[in-house]
Specification:
The chain is 83% helix and 0% strand. By secondary structure, the protein is mostly helical. It is a multi-pass membrane protein.
């Protein structure tokens, strides 16, 4: 169950990371509220996941999910570059996340 909480915490981390771009420096109320909500909910779910997972593993997976998701959405939504090197590095992060999951 801890892995499920951690997965959703990672998804919410993607939400707040992308949301920061849309807050326009916290000047737009709706994106700001949604971003802050995502931050809080992500931290709560991470805290719940830590009850059953080692902190180093959970934190690395949480940030890894956030990093991969944010990078991919940056490419898709924001027109960021999708070079082979960049996509290869994202793949390495995914391998690291899977490795930590298998080792836990």
């Amino acid at each position: 169950m801890s892995w499920i909480f951690l997965f959703f915490a990672g998804l919410l981390e993607i939400g707040w990371a992308i949301g920061l771009k849309y807050t326009d420096g916290f000047t737009r109320p709706v994106p700001t509220v949604l971003t802050v909500f995502s931050m809080i909910a992500s931290m709560i779910l991470l805290g719940i996941a830590l009850k059953g997972l080692p902190v180093g593993t959970a934190y690395a997976v949480w940030t890894g999910i956030g990093t991969v998701g944010t990078a991919l959405l940056g490419i898709w939504l924001l027109g960021e570059p999708a070079s082979a090197v960049r996509l290869g590095c994202i793949a390495l992060i995914v391998c690291g996340i899977l490795g930590l999951k298998l080792a836990a």
